[in-house]
Design brief:
The protein is built from twelve helices and no strands. By secondary structure, it is mainly α. 35% of the residues are buried.
Length: 275
């Protein structure tokens, strides 16, 4: 199985990416949550352009990527899960869950450390909010993220298929929870016990500093309430739904927004504050 995954890892990931992208793009057209300030042409060229640049950089500097390194670590016997005997299915679940927690801690770190925030604000400074926001990251942040994944794999020793599953979920959920889509409230409340929904994560992209601190969970598994906010049926966000929809990214952008939409890496956007 490992050889098959290594041979077709890029194909599997691209197929998953374009499938989710097509579904989310169609959903945004059919049932948008909020009216966009800018056209797709104004934003998507920049957002997808930086996504392509990041992909090329990763493949140039890390040809084997995280999946290839997991195979190398497996051969070398590195990592906790290569040292202990567990059912394979359990090792996969543990690996995906722990890798997700590491990415969550990375997300906290890029908000808390000033130097890293200067990189991460490329993501937050998107003057609108849709599925392409989930792929808009500074190239240096993407490279740092890969180094963190590699270190995690070396320490954890996850099965190769677990790393592939995690990468597919991570990318797919990034598009989902940044989607400009509307979910029925009852379904949204149910789903946010398991995953980060678009309405839940949109608060984190608020231009109001009261909102940007509320929700730091990232793409995939939500392991339970961490602060009593925005979780399952116990939502305590202090604003009405109508107010919350206006706290999405782009609701209070400054005069530089349109220019910044076309220059995501050189952003000096003042509408965001570091946590």
């Amino acid at each position: 199985m490992t050889d098959f995954i290594l041979d077709y890892e890029l194909t599997i990931r691209l197929a998953a990416f374009f499938s989710v992208f097509a579904v989310m793009a169609g959903w945004e057209v059919v049932q948008p949550c909020r009216q966009q300030r800018f056209t797709r042409g104004q934003r998507w060229f920049a957002n997808l352009g930086i996504t392509l640049l990041n992909t090329l950089l990763l493949r140039l500097l890390f040809p084997a990527a995280a999946v290839g390194f997991a195979a190398f670590a497996e051969v070398k016997g590195w990592g906790l899960l290569n040292e202990i005997q567990l059912p394979f299915w359990l090792s996969v679940i543990i690996a995906v869950t722990l890798m997700d927690m590491v990415i969550y801690l990375q997300h906290v770190m890029v908000h808390a450390v000033p130097a890293l925030w200067r990189l991460h604000r490329v993501h937050h400074a998107d003057p609108d909010y849709d599925l392409t926001t989930g792929a808009r990251f500074h190239p240096i942040e993407i490279l740092l993220s890969m180094l963190i994944k590699i270190a995690t794999i070396a320490a954890l020793g996850p099965p190769v298929i677990a790393v592939l599953i995690f990468e597919v979920i991570l990318n797919g959920m990034a598009m989902f929870n940044h989607g400009n889509v509307s979910l029925p409230k009852s379904l949204d409340r149910l789903l946010r016990w398991l995953v980060v929904t678009p309405d839940m994560h949109r608060v984190h992209h608020s231009c109001d500093s009261r909102g940007d601190q509320q929700q730091l969970r990232l793409q995939s598994v939500d392991l339970g309430p961490s602060d009593g906010h925005l979780q399952g049926g116990t939502e305590t966000w202090p604003y009405r739904d109508a107010d919350r929809s206006q706290l999405a990214a782009g609701s209070t952008v400054d005069d530089k927004a349109e220019r910044d939409a076309e220059n995501p890496v050189s952003k000096e956007y003042s509408g965001w504050r570091r946590l």
